[in-house]
């Protein structure tokens, strides 16, 4: 289990008495409140929304290891009492990989005491960096350590990301202030073989209790390299796992298009025009 230095820190929106519950998991150098727009929209739809800080991030403590497996283990208490059963999980970047790892280490969600018969949890992963080459990983290390050592101001974030609100930028600034360069270095060292494609192959006992969608950033945007490529998940596609691209989105999909995230969290990919289906991306 996670050592005693780890303290679970969870932000909430909506009513705890709601019959619908959602879990949102952020990415590297962010904090739980980065989900504020998605969370508020879900709360308006009747969801009780919880968002934890990942170990080493925000107000959470750290863990002895920062491997993806250790991150998942640290969050695993969220899936038992007193926390509710989650009908919906949305996760971004590092949080998305952590969610995939959770699917391999948790009992099927349908076994939760509060789960109705034949229940299924909807999971939406946003631009997960499933594979990073050693060169790409070192570039990520350099950029993230730079952000932690010299956090950009909210004004700088807004200048670089015109679709962000001031609140988006302020929470991102806080995330960079609260994480240390040492934490980033440990996280990347503990995941030095950054290859998680195999996590798309769900355990047999989990396959009937989840419906999984992966949304990637727009690969056609100049100067913006997406973290996720549809072909990485292609061998694993099935009726319960599908993929798509959010047109016009960079890596921060939930900050740029929160309404698209919410829409696709609540519906199948083919029920909206904002996202192109995997079949439309065969030329990638």
UniProtKB/TrEMBL annotation:
InterPro entries: AB_hydrolase_1, AB_hydrolase_fold, AB_hydrolase_sf. Residues 23-263 form the AB hydrolase-1 domain. The keyword Hydrolase applies. Keywords: Hydrolase. It comes from the Eukaryota. One of its GO terms (cellular component) is membrane. One of its GO terms (molecular function) is hydrolase activity. This is Alpha beta-hydrolase. It comes from Coniophora puteana (strain RWD-64-598).
């Amino acid at each position: 289990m996670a050592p005693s230095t780890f303290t679970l820190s969870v932000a909430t929106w909506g009513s705890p008495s709601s019959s619908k519950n959602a879990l949102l998991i952020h990415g590297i150098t962010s904090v739980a409140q980065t989900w504020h727009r998605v969370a508020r929209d879900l709360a308006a739809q009747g969801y009780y929304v919880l968002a934890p800080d990942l170990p080493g991030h925000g107000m959470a403590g750290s863990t002895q290891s920062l491997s993806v497996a250790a991150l998942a283990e640290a969050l695993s208490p969220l899936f038992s009492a007193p926390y509710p059963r989650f009908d919906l999980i949305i996760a971004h970047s590092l949080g998305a990989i952590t969610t995939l790892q959770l699917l391999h280490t948790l009992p099927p969600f349908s076994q939760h005491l509060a789960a109705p018969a034949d229940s299924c949890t909807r999971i939406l992963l946003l631009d997960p960096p499933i594979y990073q080459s050693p060169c790409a990983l070192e570039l990520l290390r350099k950029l993230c350590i730079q952000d932690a050592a010299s956090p950009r101001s909210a004004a700088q974030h807004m200048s670089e990301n015109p679709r962000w609100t001031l609140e988006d930028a302020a929470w991102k600034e806080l995330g960079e202030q609260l994480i240390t360069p040492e934490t980033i270095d440990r996280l990347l060292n503990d995941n030095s073989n950054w290859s998680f494609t195999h996590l798309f192959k769900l355990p047999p006992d989990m396959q009937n209790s989840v419906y999984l969608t992966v949304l990637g950033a727009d690969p056609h945007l100049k100067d913006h390299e997406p973290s996720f490529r549809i072909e990485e998940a292609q061998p694993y596609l099935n009726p319960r796992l599908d993929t798509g691209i959010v047109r016009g989105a960079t890596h921060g999909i939930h900050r740029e298009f929160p309404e698209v995230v919410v829409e696709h969290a609540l519906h199948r990919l083919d029920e909206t025009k904002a996202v192109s289906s995997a079949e439309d991306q065969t030329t990638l």
